[in-house]
Structures are given as structure tokens and as C-alpha cells.
From TrEMBL:
It comes from the Bacteria. Residues 117-319 form the Peptidase C45 hydrolase domain. This is Predicted choloylglycine hydrolase. One of its GO terms (molecular function) is hydrolase activity. NCBIfam families: C45_proenzyme (NF040521). It comes from Marinovum algicola. InterPro entries: C45_proenzyme-like (IPR047794), Ntn_hydrolases_N (IPR029055), Peptidase_C45_hydrolase (IPR005079). Keywords: Hydrolase.
Length: 361
């Protein structure tokens, strides 16, 4: 059984409902799991990419030169991943993420500490029908990385074996420039960096094609947020949280719809008292203005996740408050069925843990 097998459509209900199957997968080197991700998600990404004109780079060579110049550590990995479909040059171009089409996700993220140590929590907001819905543990370059897949090889958030945890949120500005798409930057930081300072240095050095906010924390409890933009230098904020604006709301309509200021004000008050523990932050993240159930309109909280750098764990959870934990050194592949409705999101049943045969079926 494929972990990406579709569920049967819901019966007629008095409220909107969408079912998605989330997968938690693991592999040491790009092989069957990577191929299953391509099979499930590349057709949709390919259509999206070409419909929006693909890269704005003048030539394919420009993207290759940019990758070698700014992220030489990633060139062999991109070579290996793209070799899975050698007859599709669009895949290679897409995986470099150089000057891609505009890409928006509206999220909330915060790093805090409690009795168990530092942690990073985030809400990921998008149309749940579009999410890749995959937690992937990989060891593609000799460093174990665990995170939520975004753009096939990229990540929206994650943590590595060194205890560095990173998350992205949209920065609230529509302009684009010469740079890389943020999912590849998150993957790059986790593949090559060991702590917050390493991550900040890497993000300062690599151009980002749109405005994004990246929050980082590490095993020592260091935390920071960096504002990335294509037209101004990276700005490091020693504020351990971010919503969807930077210096101020620069896209008023998006600011209103996403309630970015309201979320920021709530976080500011919360952190001004004492750093919230995990239970307190989760309680806030699962209620408005942080949690959104506007799935009928194509926008809502798709998942929440918390990373624990000291313990090496990740816990995915949904609006009902229940979820599932994974350990980086002892990762158990599984699938989880989730329902999104006007009432919120909920895990429908206990996870189904996969046998070796099922993982590659």
C-alpha cells in the first residue's frame, strides 16, 4: 500500500470536509522513498511551475552557476535527486529553486524553553489539498535531517542531528528578485549547519528570491529570527518568534486576512511575561488568531509541529490537540489520516505504522 494512497471521498455532510493522508517516511540515501515522493508530487509541482513561467533565470546555466557559487555543498545532492528522471530537464531546473515563481505560505512560529529544554513550534497555513503532507527523515549527505517536505527536496521546517531546528514563514511582501526559493534554503541550513549562529551566517550569505522570516533555535537554547528579502540585507532579530510581516505590514490585504499583527501582538505579550512552555504555546496555537479553519476558502492551518533539539523528537498535531511523536534516531514510518472541516482539523485514527514492504509499495 502506498503511503500516498487517496482516501475515499467523504459522505455528504452538513459541513465541508476534506480528508488527507499524511506520511512519515525515512531513508538513508535517495532511493525508493525519494521516488515515491516524486511519483506523488512532481506532476502537480511541474504543472504549477510551468503554468507560472518556470524560473526567471536567463539560462539553465545561470541556475547551475548560482548553485555552485552560493550552495556548493548541495550540487552533488541535486545531481543525484534529478538523476531519478534523467529525461525531464524541468526537474533539474525546479530542484535548484533558483528564481522560481512566487510562493506564499502564511504561518506562525515560535522558539521557547521549558523544563524539558528548548523547542520550536509552528503552525503551517495553506490549502490542505496542496500540502505534500510528509514528514521525512533523511541522511542524504551524511547528516540526519527530519522535517516537513516542501517543494520535493526542500523543507518548510525541520531539525538536524546537531539539534538545530528551523522554520519559515512568509514575510508579507510580494516583490521578487534574484535568489533561491526558501524551501531549498531551509534544507541547506539543516544539511550544513550545527547551531543558530551557523544558520544565521548561512542565511546571510545566500540570496532569497522573496521575503521570508526564518526562526531558529538549537540545543543550547539560542534563538533568533532573520528577515530575508530580495531587495534589502538580511535583518537578524533576537525575537524568538515570527508571523507574516517584517518591519511592518507592507501588503495590507494579506495583513488583514492573515491577522499577522494580531498574532504578533499576542506572541509579544506572551513572551514578555515568561517564555511559554509547550502546553501553553500549543493551547494558543490551536485557537484564533493563530489557528485558522478557513479550508473551504483554500486557506487554513494544515498542521502544527514541535521540534525538541535536546530529545531529537518531532511531534505533529492537529486542531483536536492529538498527534504523534517521532524520534530522530528511532524513526518509525507511518501514515496518519486527517480530516479538515469547518470545525477545524482532527486525526481520524491512530497512526498506521508501515512495514518495509509497505514503505515502497
Amino acid at each position: 500500500m502506498s503511503p500516498f494512497a487517496p482516501l475515499h471521498p467523504s459522505q455528504a455532510r452538513p459541513v465541508y470536509a476534506l480528508h488527507r493522508r499524511f506520511a512519515a517516511l525515512s531513508e538513508e540515501r535517495p532511493a525508493e522513498t525519494w521516488e515515491s515522493l516524486l511519483h506523488a508530487h512532481w506532476p502537480g509541482w511541474r504543472d504549477w511551475y510551468l503554468a507560472r513561467g518556470g524560473t526567471t533565470a536567463e539560462t539553465t546555466r545561470e541556475a547551475e552557476r548560482a548553485l555552485r557559487r552560493h550552495m556548493p555543498e548541495m550540487t552533488k545532492l541535486i545531481d543525484r535527486l534529478s538523476a531519478t528522471l534523467p529525461d525531464d530537464p524541468v526537474l533539474r531546473e525546479f530542484l535548484t529553486f533558483w528564481c522560481p515563481p512566487r510562493y506564499l505560505v502564511s504561518c506562525t512560529q515560535a522558539a521557547s524553553q521549558d523544563a524539558r529544554g528548548p523547542f520550536l513550534m509552528r503552525n503551517y497555513d495553506l490549502d490542505p489539498a496542496l500540502s505534500e503532507a510528509t514528514l521525512l527523515r533523511s541522511n542524504w549527505r551524511g547528516k540526519v535531517v527530519m522535517g516537513m517536505v516542501e517543494g520535493l527536496a526542500g523543507l518548510s521546517d525541520g531539525m538536524n542531528q546537531d539539534g538545530l531546528a528551523v522554520s519559515l514563514s512568509f514575510g508579507g511582501r510580494v516583490g521578487t528578485g534574484r535568489g533561491f526559493g526558501i524551501p531549498l534554503l531551509i534544507r541547506y541550513v539543516l544539511e550544513t549547519c550545527t547551531d543558530v549562529q551557523d544558520g544565521l551566517d548561512a542565511l546571510r550569505a545566500v540570496p532569497c528570491h522573496m521575503s521570508y522570516n526564518v526562526t531558529l533555535t538549537d540545543r543550547r537554547g539560542q534563538a533568533a529570527t532573520v528577515f530575508l528579502s530580495p531587495d534589502r540585507p538580511p535583518m537578524v532579530q533576537f525575537t524568538p518568534w515570527a508571523t507574516n510581516h517584517q518591519l511592518g505590514v507592507e501588503w495590507p490585504r494579506h495583513g488583514r486576512i492573515s491577522a499577522t499583527l494580531e498574532r504578533a501582538q499576542s506572541l509579544g505579550l506572551m513572551f514578555a511575561r515568561n517564555p511559554p512552555d509547550e502546553a501553553t504555546l500549543q493551547s494558543s496555537f490551536l485557537t484564533p488568531p493563530f489557528f485558522s479553519a478557513k479550508y473551504r476558502a483554500g486557506y487554513g492551518t494544515v498542521f502544527s509541529i514541535v521540534y525538541r533539539p535536546v530529545q531529537g523528537t518531532a511531534r505533529l498535531f492537529w486542531g483536536c490537540g492529538t498527534g504523534q511523536d517521532w524520534q530522530m534516531p528511532a524513526f518509525a514510518p507511518a501514515t496518519l489520516d486527517v480530516e479538515f472541516s469547518d470545525l477545524g482539523s482532527r486525526l481520524l485514527a491512530a497512526p498506521t505504522f508501515l512495514t518495509d514492504l509497505q514503505r515502497t509499495a
